[in-house]
Amino acid sequence: MRSLRGATSTGAAGLLAAAIEGAGRLDMPLYLVGGPVRDLLLGRQPSDLDLVVEGDAPRLASYVAGKTDAKVVLHRRFGTASVRVGKERLDLATARREVYERPGALPKVTGGSIEEDLLRRDFTINAVALGLAGPRSGELLDPSLGVSDLDKGLVRTLHAKSFEDDATRVFRAVRYEQRLSLSLEGETLGRLAKALEMDMLATVSADRLRRELALVLSEERAVETTLRAGALGVLSRLYPPLKDASWMGRFPEGSGGAQPLTLVAGLAYPMSHGEAEGFVRRLNMPSSWGAAARDMARLTGKAAALEAPELPATALYRMLEGRSAASVEALRRLTPSRAAQERLAEYLERLRFVKPILRGEDLASLGVGRGPRVGEVLRLLLEERLEGRALTREEERNFVLNHLKSHGGEI
Ligand code: CTP
């Protein structure tokens, strides 16, 4: 197991030391829990520090803030708090029991022991804790044999109704499996399939589903995670036109440097306009996601034009201007046509950045006048430049003056 000290930065270590000291003074047993313990057991760098106290987390967080320069945010109603110095952050929660009254509903929360807190969790590999202060300091708590599952390389739910309690766990299962090179344990796989069959994703709000998809698309191995979610039927349950999303395999492995937004556009690759619109609604997408998905559906309709033997730069620019760059990038990765790939790359790497040198005020001083005409002449200049003409400031000036002359000085 990787040492906690070796895996934390100086800032986080300061916060942690204050929390441990405070937990001792306030007589509240303190534990590192879940993801960070799992990551330390695997020898990985923990991405966040989650702490649980048997006591009162907001009170301990206030103590830490009083002893350090940390800013504190308290959620007394939930018994949680976070303390932050710069980029370093500790999340503290009061140990709790959760009861799910119906699928998808937020759980009823009451105070509990650390064991109860661990046993309400999603997978055995996350139901682990390390005592930091109190009688069990230095002890590894593993009531559901998560360490043995880590050794065997298995993602296993803690009980039969885990995915029904919270169907977002189907995405979590796939993320852990792909990120940590584990496999879904047999019974867990069956439970996941059953939850999908029972349409449990329908019990989760659009916003929560979108956040889960965003986490999938932000993973280091985003493409593999997406393909696995597709193969398991998670994506077709999320939105039927996503099917098994097998076309996403045309993205290079990992995300190949692609941003999550490019992968959102990629998911819409085979969709009609209507289906893309449904996808936007299904996940209550914000405008950047919506533009990526809708523009992808619009662009695939231009596939033949993008492959045409002759396509002037101006025509290519007109076809793509105003479209979300994520959708153009996704189409570049997904289209099988070499000619289309090259044109999309030309647009992304060069054409979309082209701008005339002259500005509106320069045109006014050359006698173009003000108002919409300025925009029209700027556009002509842009097109000259896109076609490789009018390259210097002088050439642009000459173009404008010739244009003025040919319009009798009136444009
Ligand atoms: N958890 C859960 N069910 C959920 C979400 C979270 O049981 N639907 C539990 C898990 O035990 C998890 C902990 O809450 O370990 C904290 O959640 P999160 O920060 O999302 O998990 P990490 O394991 O820290 O994940 P990551 O490594 O992706 O940050």
Describe this structure as you would to a colleague.
Helix 2 (10-26) packs across helix 4. This protein has helices spanning 4-7, 10-26, 35-41, 57-67, 114-119, 146-152, 162-165, 169-179, 186-197, 206-218, 222-231, 234-238, 260-267, 273-282, 287-300, 303-307, 313-320, 325-334, 338-349, 360-365, 372-386, 393-406; strands at residues 30-33, 49-53, 71-75, 80-85, 88-94, 96-99, 108-111, 129-133, 140-141, 154-155, 183-184. It contains 22 helices and eleven strands. The termini are far apart. It folds into four domains: 10-152, Beta Polymerase, domain 2 (2-Layer Sandwich), CATH 3.30.460; 154-281, cca-adding enzyme, domain 2 (Orthogonal Bundle), CATH 1.10.3090.10; 296-353, no CATH class; 360-406, no CATH class. It has a seven-stranded mixed beta sheet with strand order 3-4-5-2-1-8-9. A two-stranded antiparallel ribbon has the order 6-7. A two-stranded parallel ribbon has the order 10-11. Helices cover 51% and strands 11% of the residues. It is of the alpha+beta class and 411 residues long. The longest helix is centred in the first third of the chain and has 17 residues, at 10-26. The mean pLDDT is 94. Bound molecules: cytidine-5'-triphosphate. The site of cytidine-5'-triphosphate has 11 residues, from loops.
In short:
The protein is an alpha+beta fold. It contains 22 helices and 11 strands.
List the helices and strands and how they pair.
Blueprint: H1 4-7, H2 10-26, E1 30-33, H3 35-41, E2 49-53, H4 57-67, E3 71-75, E4 80-85, E5 88-94, E6 96-99, E7 108-111, H5 114-119, E8 129-133, E9 140-141, H6 146-152, E10 154-155, H7 162-165, H8 169-179, E11 183-184, H9 186-197, H10 206-218, H11 222-231, H12 234-238, H13 260-267, H14 273-282, H15 287-300, H16 303-307, H17 313-320, H18 325-334, H19 338-349, H20 360-365, H21 372-386, H22 393-406
Parallel strand pairs: 2-5, 10-11
Antiparallel strand pairs: 1-2, 1-8, 3-4, 4-5, 6-7, 8-9
The structure holds cytidine-5'-triphosphate.
